[in-house]
Amino acid sequence: MLILCRQDLTDHEREEILAAARNAGFEPFFAHSGRIILHGPGDAAPLSDLPGILSIEPLPDRPVLAKEPGNAVVRVNDVEIGGGAFTVVAGPCAVEEKARLIDLAHAAKSAGCDLLRGGAYKPRTSPYSFRGLRAVGLEYLRAASDATGLPVVTEILDAQDVELFTDTADMIQIGTRNMMNYELLVAVGRAGKPVLLKRGMGSTIDELVHAAEYLLLEGAPGVVLCERGIRTHEPSTRNTLDLAAIPVLKGVASLPVIVDPSHATGRRDLVAAMGRAAAGAGADGVMLEIHDDPDCALCDGPQAIHPENLSALVDNMRKISALAAEAEDLL
Amino acid sequence: MLILCRQDLTDHEREEILAAARNAGFEPFFAHSGRIILHGPGDAAPLSDLPGILSIEPLPDRPVLAKEPGNAVVRVNDVEIGGGAFTVVAGPCAVEEKARLIDLAHAAKSAGCDLLRGGAYKPRTSPYSFRGLRAVGLEYLRAASDATGLPVVTEILDAQDVELFTDTADMIQIGTRNMMNYELLVAVGRAGKPVLLKRGMGSTIDELVHAAEYLLLEGAPGVVLCERGIRTHEPSTRNTLDLAAIPVLKGVASLPVIVDPSHATGRRDLVAAMGRAAAGAGADGVMLEIHDDPDCALCDGPQAIHPENLSALVDNMRKISALAAEAEDLL
Amino acid sequence: MLILCRQDLTDHEREEILAAARNAGFEPFFAHSGRIILHGPGDAAPLSDLPGILSIEPLPDRPVLAKEPGNAVVRVNDVEIGGGAFTVVAGPCAVEEKARLIDLAHAAKSAGCDLLRGGAYKPRTSPYSFRGLRAVGLEYLRAASDATGLPVVTEILDAQDVELFTDTADMIQIGTRNMMNYELLVAVGRAGKPVLLKRGMGSTIDELVHAAEYLLLEGAPGVVLCERGIRTHEPSTRNTLDLAAIPVLKGVASLPVIVDPSHATGRRDLVAAMGRAAAGAGADGVMLEIHDDPDCALCDGPQAIHPENLSALVDNMRKISALAAEAEDLL
Amino acid sequence: MLILCRQDLTDHEREEILAAARNAGFEPFFAHSGRIILHGPGDAAPLSDLPGILSIEPLPDRPVLAKEPGNAVVRVNDVEIGGGAFTVVAGPCAVEEKARLIDLAHAAKSAGCDLLRGGAYKPRTSPYSFRGLRAVGLEYLRAASDATGLPVVTEILDAQDVELFTDTADMIQIGTRNMMNYELLVAVGRAGKPVLLKRGMGSTIDELVHAAEYLLLEGAPGVVLCERGIRTHEPSTRNTLDLAAIPVLKGVASLPVIVDPSHATGRRDLVAAMGRAAAGAGADGVMLEIHDDPDCALCDGPQAIHPENLSALVDNMRKISALAAEAEDLL
Fold it and tell me: Which chains touch C (3 or more CB pairs under 8 A)?
């Protein structure tokens, strides 16, 4: 059963409900959006009169919060994602020198981008690879954000770092390798920050929506989904970008959806075409890797684009997005 | 070794070259574009003076005809594919009644489509399914083409039918299940008709280009490639449309590339979004299934769109295509 | 509807039934096992009294012939596949010199193998690759079979070659690239020869069983299924061998199932382990590529094993197969 | 560069080395096996004389600890995995009632199994599903282990729980959803417990070996790899079990490899066949889900087998394993 509690539930009321649920034979789980999930063979009827409880209903068999219209627009500081504009997130794969990062942030800003991305904590296949500047990288991102006014989104790897990210980032990213790290989803969902949730490279669209539900159930004030390619047999791109995921997601959830053509393809020469395709498919935005000297980037240089053409590309994608929106009801 | 012969090679010259190649220790294979492929431990030097031979060079390790600039535009009657316009092929999955087909062809024509599609010979997973009207279906297609002026493209399943298709169709389609049916590629390549070659659902982009090379080596006057989705773990769409294949193909081949969003997704509600995405990705066109009563279609009804909105969708895709072309050099 | 006819149906009876079916509003299709498939809006009741008709029933929605117990054992000359023995098919990937082939056949025979394999008609990704000795290769295979007594199985690529294969081969192979070449399945099904049907590299188990149904519906006197790996994201093997297909196939069909570890892995160092695994999984046999000088083989040398250890491997697999059979009912 | 330190490095020495590395322009990372990874543009030569340093060498571009012969056998209490025996891990998917768990542990013990498995912390696709008994479940597992003498292996989901698992479990499992949760790998690697590392469902074999390297680099006293199926287009099984991973892993690493046929297939009727296949492929063991009332199991009931036939199956797999080992050098 699912108990929906009053928004201003007191700690005392919560503990009373949890104790009563245990007494009634349930394993209760309190989610920070004010919902209590009950499993087990108990009888929930006696609970219904407890103070703080609004309703008791069967557990949903599908994500429901991810489908609520109220979650269709996500605000990150002054930026609105999902409200009709085509949002562009840009920045380097990994945070490197502070000055370079600030320069790239300025380049992103003048090209019309809306958010700054950059990895401070980097998940790497090999333990011998560079794992990012970590806390120092977060500081640099904060500085670059402050210098340009662009809100910053950056990837978290571990629940123990949530407080640090909450203090530094404007939006917290869950990367493809952690989409099914459900403890991290719970911890980040409680942080009170909007979340960018990337699809697992071996995950289904359905699992992505369920992962978003974890975040929303813990009270995340907004979740933006990101399609970034899945693993397939095709070797000419790093992953296979599944753009049909955009309209599929629009059907089963109400959340904004953006696309990462850089990680999807792993190839700079494909990024612009896939950004335009994402706009045509109805995406709410894209996430692009940029670097002023891609061949020397510490991480994923082959997929970063140079900022010099960024402005023209952003403009082009936005025009396509607007055209696509005009015809989005055609079947 | 690869022998390049004079275009107007006589039968006698050809037989002499083949005989000499066999004498020299080779297994020769004559391709109808006037090339002879030599395998085996022989010495090709003695052949070089034979009449009809222009050059002898090592066998290419990559498709070369598929990369020739001269193959970038394919003409089907008056229609040019690959020359900058955004070509729309439309029609029912399977040919059913003659009058309905002609009506659909008129609908496609008035919506601004360029070619008529329709399956007369249908490859079906189950032998108990309807396999198409076959020769009769080809007649209906011819009639619908004659009534509207739209050239017709239709799928061939067997080398023994090449003559029949050559007489009836304006463009011959090789379907996804036969992309690696190399004997069929050879036979169709010799037919003197432009070919629409669909990617195998379990094939790589590289294999698709090699399959095109088979056709061109046998003299096909034009090959258009078609991305139609690949098999992956994602269950919400019938296949996963690999739109990155478009810019990848543009890099390794010079052939026109179109996209089939109907078979890729198997879902009518995704077709328009994927058509727009294809335009954004730089495709030279799309292939759409239409049906005036999709729920009653004998085959693949769930993916067919109703002709009533076709015109607006075609117009929308063409505008996106034009925008994408403006920015296609941005990286 | 599906009409089941008398086994000794005369041509005249058949034509009368087909004509009556057309008159009744059907598109009839006659399959050579004596079944007539009816599609269309007609009423089949009037047909039931025609001479030659045993029954009229709804079209099956699942393969039914592939599930018949009578198809559980396939005979190729004196060899029984599926009757409890663990059958080993061995031979080179491609037929090369005649003497070498005969030597390999003798090696296979003395190692205890049951059938000789070898490709005369080779489907190749590149048109510039060696496509096999073709008709000459079939002659060599016939000679090697006659010299050793091993029945020969070899791959057909085109329906036009059925007669040639029927005259030469003891068992006809449909390769992975042609599993969905349904016209070829129909033609080979009519040839009166047992068939080895390999799973398409992008196909499902369900599609494989349906393909077998095509063959049986046309009267194939036996169909052996072959799991040979599917395309996945894993790059360390050429394909991913899906051994769970064996017990899955045993559940949905009654046909013998063998495994090709050579093409599945593309790596000689994995063949023995995968042959043993196939035996453990309950396969009715394996198909192995052998070559006396693998590094010089014209085709797929890296996956061929040397005949010297073949006997010990065959013996080992048979012992494992026997152990697996003892416990095959354990769940 | 990679610095190898003395095993008994003092904290003071470590801090000195790290400080010197930072001064020299590096970002140093200390791994608990006594290795320091240096990234950045620095010059490592001045460091070589510092106390505690054994050697400084280039960073490896491949896993090296995973390839060390010393890691070929993993000990969990009295059980040796990888030493030639065929290890069987058995238990329920999720820990439920304490008494039932103890009964199942006794059943596993009398069937000849070596370790007890059971999930206390369960990663679930939907946040509304039962997430396990958690700390209480660990207590039950400890009790079942103490009652039977079977060491217990159970899955950890979050780095914050490492101490709890270290106190309770004999072996810590990293599940398929967390194989690329590198922070968890680091934390678990430091726990001083042997680790069972499952392959990510969308991961490559190469990534699995790299993940093991993370654990070993942090000092894990043993890592056992577990193949449990990957995501593919085949829908008849939950995942596609990649048994070729076993001999591939044996080539690139020296670690023991076991197989989980229960999660790989998701179907009880396939478990025995795939367990036998794993034995034939040369696996060092299997992990089986058992349940005395599978239809009522809280989690994954359809794939659990009943303990009644377990003993015969274990015996059968061990015989096949022994036969496979006899012939493991055959190519």
Answer: A, B, D
